[in-house]
Amino acid sequence: MVRCVAVIGAGVGGLASIKCCLDEGLEPTCFERSEDIGGVWHYTDSMDSRRVSVYRSVITNTSKEMSCFSDFPYPEDFPNYLHHSLVLEYFRMYARHFDLLRHIRFKTTVLSVRKCPDFTTSGQWEVVTEIDGVQELHIFDAVMVCTGHFQEPYFPLASFPGINNRFKGQYLHSQEYKDVEAFRGKRVLVVGIGNTGGDLAVELSRVAAKVYLSTRSSTWVFSRVSDHGFPLDMVHTTRFNHFLDQLLPSSLMKRIKFRKFNSWFNHANYGLASTKSSNFKIIVNDELPFCLLSGTVVLKPKVKEFTESSAVFEDGTTEDDIDVVLFATGYIFTFPFLEESVHSLFDDNRSLYKRIFPPQLEKPTLAIIGLVQLTGSVMVGSEMQARWVTGIFAGWNKLPPTSTMMTDVLKKKPPVKRHPSERENLKMSFIGYVDEIASCAGVKPSVLRLLLTDPQLALAIFFGPCTPYQYRLVGRGKWSGARDAILTQWQRTLKPLRTRVVDDFSNSSSSWHWLRLLALPVALTAGFLLSKYPRAGWSAWASPQL
């Protein structure tokens, strides 16, 4: 029986884990090597190479309603997309509300996590920590590793001939980037077009003499502002859309998605992506298309090599007088404190059962929280993981036999090892993954059951945004405020915008309400047709290219 739990890291995953431990009657002790909570969301000017934090201007890519703790909504007057300082303020409010800080030991580094000699029977761990140069040994019944996936910069210099021995300019990883001042008036090449690369290119274009953005993959760009001005994820991350994604043939869904992708601007005209792309990523960036249109950012293909002051690209073009190369090539995860016999059990999160548990361990007392990439908020996914894990530690939930877990892992793990920079393509469906873990924890809501008992709530859950409150309606950890939080989520979305009220006689909200009601029979009809006609027939019908 687990009682004492070590939680490593006091970022979003660590805070959720402490709270979930307390909910299950466990005794958590959290070790945080910095002086504050927040993890990467705690901005610092420090250039400590071991510390990863957001840069000064970061705004969230997911909206507040879609990325909050499931029983603790953001204040209604907070903006929908948040500056990192507001995210950290929210974490402090959460920690104070649930009295989490007294369980955290700050400025404490975890040096090692090793199995106790009797691990096969006890499942216990030896944890060695250090504070002010003094080491201490602890014994814990279980360990929750909450250091996330922003751990060690991925710096693939070997893939860029000449960067080390010929290029005379400056090069650095985006981890070292804080603000634009050091780049004022310079010619900058940004390598990598993930969310970070896109953001930095746009920001630097305001002060740099020229910004080039190099990418080797097709990229679709979305704005945070979606239909009728609502947040992107609140409009598109719905159970209804997820249902259609599962129901309709993949070829048809691909055509629909590409058409939607191009509804803002034609990506092929900008050199970003083609509807024939089989391998692509999606980023959120409100300003990149305009920067490309105005020439303040110039898109380039993959870099072939560097000379003393130039970058030569794979298409044969060259850009001269490059002052700075900024690598926005992401991060890799490392767990230097884990003993090798444990760390060797997983080379990435796909080697973990449900992306959490090393399946080969004799006792399931080690959990990796937050090492997952989703199409939605990782905060919500991390909290759901913590709820399930602490339920297992407390004895309420059970894991299947090792053979079953290994079969599940091998079934979901691709046969070819991916390049670290391609992890964007490995993002899992937000609703699919969180629902999967919620089902394991016994907290996934049943839309059909609610349709019989609470139709208003059922429709809001199925057609509305899949907000975290949905996972507090049933099961352990049920929250009495969940129903009201769901039914008032659009009010909290509009509240910070009501700083100047105008008369509006539009009946668009009423029309949208009836459209949602009509969508259910349409979906049922689609399901009937799919069952009546073979999937191969649908695929053939949907096969023509756009």
Automatic annotation (TrEMBL):
Membrane protein topology class: Single-pass membrane protein
InterPro entries reported for this sequence: FAD/NAD-bd_sf, Flavin_mOase, Flavin_mOase-like, Flavin_mOase_1, FMO-like
A GO CC term attached to the entry: endoplasmic reticulum membrane
Protein's cellular compartments: Endoplasmic reticulum membrane
Catalyzed reaction equations: trimethylamine + NADPH + O2 = trimethylamine N-oxide + NADP(+) + H2O; N,N-dimethylaniline + NADPH + O2 + H(+) = N,N-dimethylaniline N-oxide + NADP(+) + H2O; hypotaurine + NADH + O2 + H(+) = taurine + NAD(+) + H2O; hypotaurine + NADPH + O2 + H(+) = taurine + NADP(+) + H2O
Domain of life, per lineage: Eukaryota
Entry cofactors: FAD
Family annotation (Pfam families): FMO-like (PF00743)
EC numbers for this chain: 1.14.13.148, 1.14.13.8
Keyword entries, A-Z: Endoplasmic reticulum, FAD, Flavoprotein, Membrane, Monooxygenase, NADP, Oxidoreductase, Transmembrane, Transmembrane helix
Function: Broad spectrum monooxygenase that catalyzes the oxygenation of a wide variety of nitrogen- and sulfur-containing compounds including xenobiotics. Catalyzes the S-oxygenation of hypotaurine to produce taurine, an organic osmolyte involved in cell volume regulation as well as a variety of cytoprotective and developmental processes.
Family to which this protein belongs: Belongs to the FMO family.
Name of the protein this chain belongs to: Flavin-containing monooxygenase 1
Protein's organism: Tricholaema leucomelas
